[in-house]
Structures are given as structure tokens and as C-alpha cells.
Amino acid sequence: MSSEEFEKLHEMYRSLYDELKMISDRVTRSQGEEKKKLVRVFDERHGEAQELLQELEQELLSAPPSFRSSMSSKVRLYHRDLGKLQRHMHTSDTGLSLSSRAGDGGYSIYAAQNERSTEQQAQRALLIQGSDSLNNATQSITRSHRIAVESEQIGTDIIEELGQQREQLDRTRDRLVHTGENLSRSRKILRTMSRKVMTNKLLLGIIIVMEVAILGAVVYLKFFRR
After folding, report:
1. How many Cα atoms occupy the beta-carbon half-sphere of 155 within 13 Å?
2. pLDDT tens per residue, range 31-52
3. Which of 62, 51, 57 is nearest to 16 (CA)?
4. Which of 52, 79, 88, 194 gives 122 a disulfide partner, CB atoms 3.0 to 4.6 angstroms apart?
5. CB neighbours of 10 closer than 8 A, spacing ≥ 6?
6. TM spans, by residue (predicted)?
7. Is the separation of the CB atoms in 16 and 35 below 8 Å?
8. Nearest 5 degrees, angle CA 111-CA 117-CA 118?
9. H runs (alpha helix) in the chain
């Protein structure tokens, strides 16, 4: 979408709408042929305004969603204001006689076509807004679904990590149990070794005492007993 093109069409429509308002005001102060001429000019300008609104809607179809939503509302208001202006014009045109209108059948047909076209354009603007709302809702649902999938993945990762931590804790507990068993066996071995050491010391003491006694007996027999 070209923002310059949209702004250009927007300015053209605003200028044309101001001209239509001016013509409508002049019709209320005119009579006879001048009034009929102003009505024809109004219908021609009204048709041009509708064409500009159609071009604005075509430009909005390729606009970004954020810009399209606000401008669609504005175009819908333009359709409504244009319809009000046309109805006001028809109300102001009651001064024309039935015979004059019969002589200007092309005007009546053209005015009716313009009114139907205005209603169709208003409905089209509503459809565009509904489509924008649906697109926004779809995008919101898509984002929510993506967030839900990401949350589910995060939850799965957390569960897997907790499972791994549980396995690590189980292995640590098993190692602690084995370590406790090893410590118990080590204490038993140390107690056994301690008893053996005491026994060996006792035996060694007895042997030393016996050797000293034997040595004393030998010395006594050799040197003192003759």
C-alpha cells in the first residue's frame, strides 16, 4: 500500500465532500431550474465521492492490520456522512414539483442508484471491518496457541530436568548407602586389626619375658653355680 496514494485520495474526498455540503446548502436557497441544476451537479459529485471511497477501500486491503483497522472505521464514517448528506439533499429537494421530476426521470433513477450504492458501500465497509476483526482474532489465537505450545515445551523440559535430578539424588543416596556399608566394614576390620595388634603385643611381651628369664637362667647357671 502507498501511504502517499491513500493521503491523496483522502484529500480529494474531503475536498469533494466539502463541495457537496456547499451544494446542499445552496439547494435549500434555490428555486426552479437553478435548483434542478444543483441537484444534478450534486448527484454527479456524489457518484465521484463514492468512487473515491471505493478506491480508498481498495488501498486499505493491502494496508497493515494496525493501520487498516483505524482507517476502516474512518471510511465507514465517511460512508455514513455521505448517506446523511444525500438524505438531507433529498429532503431539501421537496420544492421540486412532481411534473418536474417526471421530466427529469434520469435524475430520479440516478439518485436511487446512488442511494443503493451508498448502502452497499456502507455494508462493504462493515464487511471489511469484520474481516479485520476476524484477522486480528485469528492472529491472537495463533499467538495464544504458540504461547501454549512454548509453555508446554517448557513444562516438559522442567519435568525431564526434575526426573534427571531425581535420578542423580537416587544415585547419590545409593552411594551414601554403599559408603555407610563400607565404613561399617572398615570399622569391623579396624577392630579386628586392633585385637590382633593387642594379641601380638601380648605374645611379644610373653616371649620377651621368657627370653629374659632364659637368659637370666643361663647367666646364673654359667657364672654363679659352680
Report:
1. 6
2. 788 888 888 888 888 888 888 8
3. 51
4. 79
5. 56
6. 202-223
7. no
8. 90
9. 3-28, 32-61, 65-92, 98-103, 105-219
